[in-house]
Amino acid sequence: MTDEKDAPRTRLISRLITLAALVQRPMTLGVRGLVIDRAGRVLLVRHTYVEGYYLPGGGVEGGETLERALTRELVEEANVVMEGAPALHGVYLNRNVSARDHVALYVVREFQQSGPHVPDREIAEAAFFSPDALPEGTTRATRARLAEVLQGAPVSSYW
Q1: What strand order describes the sheet that includes 101-108?
Q2: Against a cut of 0.90, is the pTM above it?
Q3: Does any domain span residue 140?
Q4: Total number of domains in the chain
Q5: What are phi and psi of 6, to 5 degrees?
Q6: Using one digit for the tens of pLDDT, what is the confidence trace for 133-156?
Q7: Can you give the residue range of the structural domain that contains 20?
């Protein structure tokens, strides 16, 4: 777990990285994975630098495909290794971040988890939750994506 004294510094670094990315590449692209286990539970992560529970994922690096970025992020954030091709659910405009930020959402059902995630400087927790018992603080966007995939709610164009 991150030392409480490091939390403000970690948040500042995260904000500076985001600002630098906006200056260097005004159009940003991210990827998220809706990982569903055999029991129907969904994988959520809690970061050390921002409140709430999110679907795992992150930014797509230069020269990296969406699926490669998803593969990398799932391993980094939750020790999840995909075993089959993920299904692209949608691409969203994330206007909460910027008018030029987009997020691709993949659904992952075939995977292995090499072991529980050990808390680190970025991810405080990575765990599977029943969709009908999500943790307090699960973000609005996460709940909306779960409703789209699991309950057939209309798909939004916005994250």
Answers
A1: 57-59, 28-35, 101-108, 87-93
A2: no
A3: yes
A4: 1
A5: -85, -15
A6: 999 999 999 999 999 999 999 999
A7: 7-151
